[in-house]
Amino acid sequence: MRDLELQLRGYRLTTAEILYHMPDHPAVLQSYLWQQLDLAPKFPALIRFLDFWQRELEGPLHSVKVASAGLIGPAELRVCDGEFRLH
Fold first, then answer.
1. What is the mean pLDDT of residues 20-42?
2. pLDDT tens-place string over residues 32-57
3. 54: domain range?
């Protein structure tokens, strides 16, 4: 239920593609995908993760792409013209 509560408080599914330099081969970029519920537009959970990365991990960051989408929204209803019969 914690995820549902967060979504009701405005948290959105946030995905970040993190490109970083390999520690042993600095010319090579590696990709890491991070995904978590976070509060847009300040993204406090992502910022904490990136701070941890820079403080604790050896691979220096190259770039970060962020996408965010709400999972809970108004219901979508469409009128369909048709009839279905079950035997």
1. 95
2. 999 999 999 999 999 999 999 999 99
3. 2-69
Q: Name the residue among 78, 85, 70, 86 with its Cα closest to residue 3.
A: 70
**Are 67 and 46 in contact, with CB atoms under 8 Å apart?**
no
Instruction: Find out whether 46 and 38 touch, Cβ atoms under 8 Å.
Output: yes
32-62 per-residue burial string, b: 16 or more CB within 10 A, e: under 16: eebeebbbeeebebbeebbeebeeeeebeee
Q: Is the pLDDT score of 83 beyond 80?
A: no
Would you say residue 80 lies in a domain? no
